[in-house]
Amino acid sequence: MQDHHGSKDLPGYNPGSPDVAKSPISFDEFRELKATCLFTDEDVAYLRLSYDVLKDQAEDLVTMWRGIIAQHTHLANYGLDRATGEPDKEYGAAVGKRFAQWVLDTARADYDQAWLDYQYEVGLRHHRSKKNKTDHANAAVQIRGRDLIGFAAATVAPMRPYLEKGGHSAETVQRMQDAWWKSMILQVTLWSQPYMNAGDF
Amino acid sequence: MQDHHGSKDLPGYNPGSPDVAKSPISFDEFRELKATCLFTDEDVAYLRLSYDVLKDQAEDLVTMWRGIIAQHTHLANYGLDRATGEPDKEYGAAVGKRFAQWVLDTARADYDQAWLDYQYEVGLRHHRSKKNKTDHANAAVQIRGRDLIGFAAATVAPMRPYLEKGGHSAETVQRMQDAWWKSMILQVTLWSQPYMNAGDF
Fold this sequence. Notes:
homodimer, mainly alpha, 57% helix, globular
């Protein structure tokens, strides 16, 4: 992820930067976790196939996911400024751009050490330990662990129509979505680390 | 889950029993979590459709999942007796029967208060707080949180050929598997609760 694919001007998006936390688990432990998720080189190939399908749809996907969030008070509340009770639009815009970038990074599937470190950073930014700090925001003190993990389902389940737009066979679309499910579960697992008791992860 | 569908003679399988822990989250909070997972009545219907397809394949599924576990040392080690370093076959047999019962319970999708309480119990039994106690075993002190969540992917991704055996259309098989993905993520989210820092779940 050395060049971040031209996204270095995205505020707060800084994989590979010295400001990013280092993964507490080693790369060997990460390999084990990929095996636990049945995440293989074949999944990498299908994710990369999905890149071409999704690269111009990343913002549409974010709009769709935010529609889901807006429909549920307990999720929509996460985006409110705690002082005013109103949506923090600046924070929302910054997070939205990184969310779209996340679609591309997931699909590129360059899951190297810098990526692994950044997943820990993503977990910290949802957790009370680093929430709001990147954007100097005053929104919810943290995303609850239950919503962090549970929203994995809301992320991947509605992706199918977007994956279908590439004109691939139903079987190939299915395999692309399977790879997304596995990567999503792999990622929320990594993101959950700051939420867990010492020694429990 | 009042009658446990004739499974009351399964050792250590006791939803609804006074010995089972109570869910620390309320049923209203559980409804919110289902929404986070986009888990709807339609998913319940497709899970129940999968019941007829899977009811005679539950043991085959467990055999398949255990084959995956056996192929990975870090997963296979969970089943070894810590004194002898050998697989604890009695423990393995008891867990295997409950694992098959879990397939049926997931597909029946009677996710009521007793089921919610039992999911917390399942989490505790994977966590150091209650691991080994049900079966008086001496296996691993706990399943690591990362493997508890990550194995959700290894559970659902290989189910497709089993779901296809019911002779339903590809679209219906797809919807059944989507419902399994959502339920699986809902469940590992609930199971993760004992692993999380106070206030983080």
